[in-house]
Amino acid sequence: xxxxxxxxxxxxxxxxxVVRGVDKASGLHAIIAVHDTTLGPALGGLRMWxxxxxxxxxxxxxxxxxxxxxxxxxxxxxxxxxKAVIIGDPKKLKSEALYLAMGRLVDSLNGKYITAxxxxxxxQDLEIIRRATKHxxxxxRKDGGSGNPSPYTAYGVYLGMRAALGxxxxxxxxxxxxxxxxxxxxxxxxxxxxxxxxxAKVYGADRNNERLQQCxxxxxxxxATEAEIMTMKCDVFAPCALGAIxxxxxxxxxxxxxxxxxxxxxxxxxxxxxxxxxxxxxxxxDYVINAGGIINVxxxxxxxxxDEKVSLGKIERIPQALKELWxxxxxxxxPPSDAADRLAERIVADGRGAKKxxxxxxxxxxxxxxxxxx
Length: 374
Ligand code: NAD
Fold this sequence. Notes:
Strand content: 15-25%
Bound molecules: nicotinamide-adenine-dinucleotide
Largest sheet: 6 strands, mixed
Distance between the termini: 49 Å
CATH topology of the largest domain: Rossmann fold
Number of domains: 2
CATH architecture of the largest domain: 3-Layer(aba) Sandwich
Number of strands: 12
Strand order of the largest sheet: 1-2-3-5-4-6
Helix content: 40-55%
Oligomer: single chain
Radius of gyration: 22 Å
Structural class: alpha/beta
Shape: globular
CATH class of the largest domain: Alpha Beta
């Protein structure tokens, strides 16, 4: 088969590499953004979305890949941040040829970017991509992968939520607490199960009513409407559906002392971290509390391969990371979301410094003693 894939580099300040891949034969129009590989290869999912324009796709892939750098840095996964998007309607565009072309695009980066599942892509799609590149993670356990990340994300959110309960109520037990979960999908339902097992009263809302009724029947989630879930009096509001739901209109209506959930990019704008703080609502920064999934995937890169025990051990450090952030935030009088960003930036900068020092130490000395690398 002739290779009709055209790859173009797009210079983007602040990003190590951004490439566009267009394959007329299969209809592929994709962008991969490698934000930062200081701490390791850039890992991030492949999203397929009917973006209205390439600019819109570029905005999303840049934002998401930078977010992955921060998430992986704070979770100490040993990975950098990247993301890929395919522009198009998944219902119309998905095909074997499309994913093979996408695999070739991933492969062209020689492991600088490693792909994974994301919105509108599945493990089956990744299996096709793997025929064109080895730089794929999150495959089934039987195929040597780490499997579905959602239960691990839910476990991390559950542990992080308990840390938040401990900070606000003096005990980290969920027993007798009222938790409102927005979105009882893969992560939200697994979280609900853990909390109900602990004796919490769990309300749930979901756009998919069938799914909500199933959670009500099978585990005792109390159904609520979409409007109720965000405004009801509760001990924790756990957003596990969409991003950008915390903003000037919604934050004043929250009736909770804690926001701790799985969804990415919860704050509409960074300044909304302060709006939450001003209302004395304890916020568990999204990319810190929801890192269980990426932690689990990152264990695939350990010598000896994937080991669930290693993954669980690392996920169990999420509460400690949150406690440290809340302490920094209090001491420095900044919102926890800003404290998380600062911490992530510092970890990457330290990594950069360490890399430079290693490179410098391996350079031949100049007569004056310096290595000449500045
Ligand atoms: P999912 O698609 O399985 O579940 C999301 C659920 O939210 C669906 O059941 C959907 O019907 C519901 N929903 C959508 N809009 C809603 C609304 N306005 N009100 C109420 N319910 C609504 O997704 P998931 O894998 O459970 O992920 C949940 C969130 O967590 C997403 O934002 C995802 O990006 C994030 N996240 C997931 C993982 C993971 O491992 N799956 C890791 C990190 C972050």
